[in-house]
Amino acid sequence: MIYACVDSIRPTSRRHAPSSSHDAINRHAPKGRHRTGIDPLRALGSRDDTDDVGKQPSEPGLARFLSTPSRSIGVGIGALTPATTRWYLAPMQTFSSIEQAATALKGAVVTIGNFDGLHRGHRALITRTRDLARVRGVPSAILTFHPHPARLLAPHLAPPLISTPEQRRRLFAETEVDLLVEQPFDAAFAALSADSFTWLLLHTAGVSGIVVGHDFTFGRARGGNMATLQAAAERTGTTVEIIQPISVDGLVASSTKVREFVLSGNVEAAATLLGRPFRLEGPVVRGAGRGRTIGVPTANIAVQNELLPAMGVYAVRVTLPDGTVADGACNIGMNPTFRPEATEGLAARTLSVEVHLLDRSLDLYGAQLSLAFECRLRAERRFSSVDALVAQIKADIAETRQKLSQPAHNAQPA
């Protein structure tokens, strides 16, 4: 979020700071520096291009990349109308490329990564970026990529993503960063050398600070590393900070480990690394209608996520379209009692995701639901009869009540 301090911006949102612009901006000035007489426009990220040092790489790919038109999907930080100088919290701006965001990025502190799942390690990067930007009085920014680079570079090895693009944007917005840049990772961008990538950051965008993880690499064939980045940054006076891995209960938080836990059904361990429950989302669609005939109606979800937990029964909390939350029991599987042909070798696309809402009877067809997975109750299995299945479902519902009577998973973001 941008804490704006410009005389011509009318305060329109939910936070206001002291009426004195110098008092407000000096509060966020770096320690050890003179804190009076700071130019608010400079503090918002204005940077004189004559300060830049270096020569643009002659790589043809960079020229072609910069000449490619981009489409803005961002919003302004405020209405430019005469008003008394005040600080306010503006919505996160979203941009569709580095080039399109270049003006907004001038002087910003940026963190870079794929951020799939936005786990605790990712949040440490973003939190440091946001806090450093606030101290300097400049915008904070996230630079991420879409699609995941592996989809282009090694599609056969590309992992299922933990979050949908929409989920990831919502999670980014919750961090209160000012700018989100979703750079298309296409063949032209993938072909850029490490030198060209640093030129984009340090000269085209003109950022003042970069925060990255310890294993950060960039450029064609991962030709750039931390030493490369720091050397280029020194020439423009740009700071570079390296954040070490974040461990939780002895485990390093990583997207790979989160995927492993989800795929094995250990959603509680996944939540520990994520700092929140793993979620599936999608609209309710018509199913076979078997649940209603056996007295346990279920909502069939057309899941939009790529990553699914292991087959089984789970206790979940379901966010309904009106924002209310209902307890539920969710089954992920192949309904083997009703489908004798079902085997574990069937492709994931044959799996169904069904949720029974406890103590609720709602018409949810077409509604978008969000399922937060609290714990796994059991594996899916084939029963000898429908009566045996119904008896087990009733036991599952009773266990779900017991599990969800406890407080929601309260792990806090790093």
Architecture overview:
The chain has 414 residues and is α/β, with parallel strands linked by helices. The chain folds into 2 domains: 21-245, HUPs (Rossmann fold), CATH 3.40.50; 269-404, Beta Barrel (Elongation Factor Tu (Ef-tu), domain 3). It contains 14 helices and 14 strands. The strands form 3 sheets. Strands 1-4-3-2-5-6 form a 6-stranded parallel beta sheet, with helices on both faces. Strands 9-10-13-12-11-14 form a 6-stranded antiparallel beta barrel. Strand 7 (247-248) and strand 8 form a beta hairpin. Helix 9 (194-205) runs parallel beside helix 10 and helix 11 (255-264) runs antiparallel to helix 12. The two termini are 18 Å apart. Residues 2-52, 69-88 and 410-414 have low confidence and may be disordered.
